[in-house]
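Sharing a chain and its predicted structure for anyone who wants a worked example. Both blocks are below, sequence first, C-alpha cells second.
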Amino acid sequence: MAGRFGFSSSGSTNMIVTNTPSQDLALANLAFCSPSDLQKFAVPGSKDVYLATIGDSLVLSVAAHESIRSGHIALNSIQRRCARVSAAESISVSRFIPPENFNIALLTLELEFIKKGAKNEQVDAVLLASQLRRRFINQVMTTGQKVLFEYHGNNYSFTVSQAAVEGQEKSNSLERGMISSETYFVFETSRDSGIQIVNQREAASSNIFRQKEFNLETLGIGGLSAEFADIFRRAFASRVFPPHVTSKLGIKHVKGMLLYGPPGTGKTLMARQIGKLLNGKEPKIVNGPEVLSKFVGETEKNVRDLFADAEQDQRTRGDQSDLHVIIFDEIDAICKSRGSTRDGTGVHDSIVNQLLTKIDGVESLNNVLLIGMTNRKDLLDEALLRPGRLEVHVEISLPDENGRLQILQIHTNKMKENSFLSPDVNLQELAARTKNFSGAELEGVVKSAVSFALNRQLSLDDLTKPVDEENIKVTMDDFLHALQEITPSFGASTDDLERCRLNGMVDCGDRHRHIYQRAMLLVEQVKVSRGSPLVSCLLEGPSSSGKTALAATVGIDSDFPYVKIVSAESMIGLHESTKCAQIIKVFEDAYKSPLSVIILDDIERLLEYVAIGPRFSNLISQTLLVLLKRLPPKGKKLLVFGTTSELGFLDSLGFYDAFSVTYHIPTLKTNDAKKVLEQLNVFADEDIDAAAEALDDMPIKKLYMLIEMAAQGEQGGSSEAIYSGKEKIKISHFYDCLQDVVRI
C-alpha cells in the first residue's frame, strides 16, 4: 500500500519496543529484531537489505539479534524519540519498499556532540564523509532524523537537514532517500557547537548540481543545447572542482551572467531551470520593476534586502556557505546606463551603484550568482557588464529547425503519451514551416491547435453535453490552422509585401525578366556564399515603374524567414530621431534571423527630400549609410533592396556607391505593353496592337491605373463584365482615358 509520504510498504504489524542490546549497537542506527522476524522486512530483489517503517515516518534498516524475542523490536533512545514511543510500548511496524531512483545525491547533516560544551574538535569533512558513507550505506535517511555515531573516539549526533534524491526537484515536503556509494555529504555546525569543519569544499565540490547529468528535454528546454553548454563552461565548470584547484589556478568563480535575446526565446525558462538544478538556497526571482518604490531610499533598500540572506550566510559560515541565486527578469528596467534617465531622483543610478557594490565592491559576496535577463542589452550600464560582474553574456536567439523540432516535441509529448496526438501530425514538417518562431510562439501554436481539436467536441447548443475524451485528436489540419492564427514577431511581413503588388506580377518583357533573374541570383548568393554576409541592391527608375513591386516579389520568392519593408508611409509625422530608431530596430531584428531581406522603399522619401534647396535629413542619411555598410553578426546574412526615383540626388549623397549593385527599372516599350495587355485580356484582338502603341514608354503602375479607368466604361459599371471576359474595352474610350493620364 502507499505510505503517508508516497512510499510503498507491506502490511503492518504491532511489535513491542525494547532497548538496543548494547551501547555499541546503539551507534549503528539499526533496529534489531528476532532472527525469526527478520524476513518480514526483506526488500524484494535486494540481497541482505532489510527495511522497516516504524510508526508514521521513521524508516530504519533492520538486523537480527539473538537476544531479541519474537514480536519485539529494539530501538535506541534517539530512535524512540523520533518514533515517539517508549520502551515496552507497542508500535506499528511494516516492511518498507523503496521506490526507484531512491539514492541520495546530496545529504546535508548538522553535527553536534552528544554531550554539548564538552570540547572543541576539528573534523575533516573528507574523512568523515568517507566513514559515514561506509558505515551507513543502504540506510534510509529522512529530513529531521537524528542519528548517533562515533568518530575518532568521540560520540557525535547528526540531524538530517537535506536529503536530495537525484533528479527530484526541491519541494517543501519531507525529503527521504537511501545512502549510496556516490552520496555526497555536506556538514553544518552551529557557532557554539565546538566543532570546526575543515576541507568542507573538497567534500562537496561536485555537489553544486542536484543531478549528475542533464536532459534538457525533461527540463522543458528545447533548442538551447549549445547555449546551455556555453553557460556551464563559463559559469559552473570552475565550481565543480575543489577550491584548492581553483586557488592554484588563480581564478575566481563567475558571479553573474546575462541572458539576452528576443522575447519568448526561453531566457526566463532557462534561468529558472538553472536555479532548480543548483544545490543551494531557493532562487530568488525578481521582476525588475518590483524593486522600484516611490519612497526615497526604499528602492536601494529593496536591492540590499535581496542580498541579506547571502551576507548572513557568508558571515556565519564563510567559505562553507551555500550558493545563493538571484534571478533578475527584465533587468533593463532598473539597470539602465547611469545618466540616461533624467527623472530628477537619480534612483536608477543608485540601483546600479548598489548592485555593483554587492557583486564586486569592497565587501563583495562570493556566494552569490546573479542571473539577469533582458531584451535590450544595449540599455544596460556598461560597468555592470564587465568581468567580475555580469561577465558571462549568452544570447538566447531564435531556434533553428532542429531546435523548433525539440520544442514542439516537448509541448506535444504528453498528448502523444495519452494518444491525443493524431498519427498524421508531422512535427518535422511543422518545424520546417515555423521559421523565425520563438519558443513561446511555438507553444502558442500548440495551444491553438489543441483549441481547434477541443472545439470539435463541443456543441454551442448544449455545453453540458458530456465530452468523449477518446475522440479528442489533435490533427495536422489543426496545426495548419493554428499557423494562420499565430505569426512570428520576427517573420516576413507578407501582408505588407502583398500590398506592394496588388495587381500581382505579370510578364513585362525580357528587360524586366532579366532584372528579376539577376535579383534572385543575389538571393542565392546570400544563401550559399561564405564571403558575402551583406549584399545590397538599388533599384532605380522612373516613378511608378514597378520597383517596389519587383523588390517585394523577390522578398516573397526568396523564402527568407525575415522580410521587412521600410517605407515613409509608416513614419508619417515622426521626428527624424524616431525614424532613425525605427530603421535601426528593423536592422537589429534582421540580425536575429539567419537569413533576412530588408526593402528600403523610396529612399528619397525616407530622407525627407525636397528638390527646392535641396533639403533632406542628414541624420537619417548618415544612419542609412552606416547600416548599409555594417556587416551582420556572425552566422547571419542580410540582403537589402533600395528603391528610388532620384538616382542623381542619392548619388550626390554617396548612396550609389553604398549599394553593391544597381539595376535600372525601365518603363514599358510597345512590345512590353503588348505582353501585359495580352495577359490582362481586356481588349479585342484587333485593338491590342493599337493600345500597345499608345502605351509606349508608359510605367507599369500607370498602365494598370489606365486599364482600371477604361474598364469602368463610358457610363460606368462595366468593370465586372470586362474582367470576366464578357465584354472588351472600347479603344475609343481607352484613348479618352489616356488623355487624362498622360501629362501633356
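Comments welcome. Residues 1-7 have pLDDT under 50 and may be disordered.
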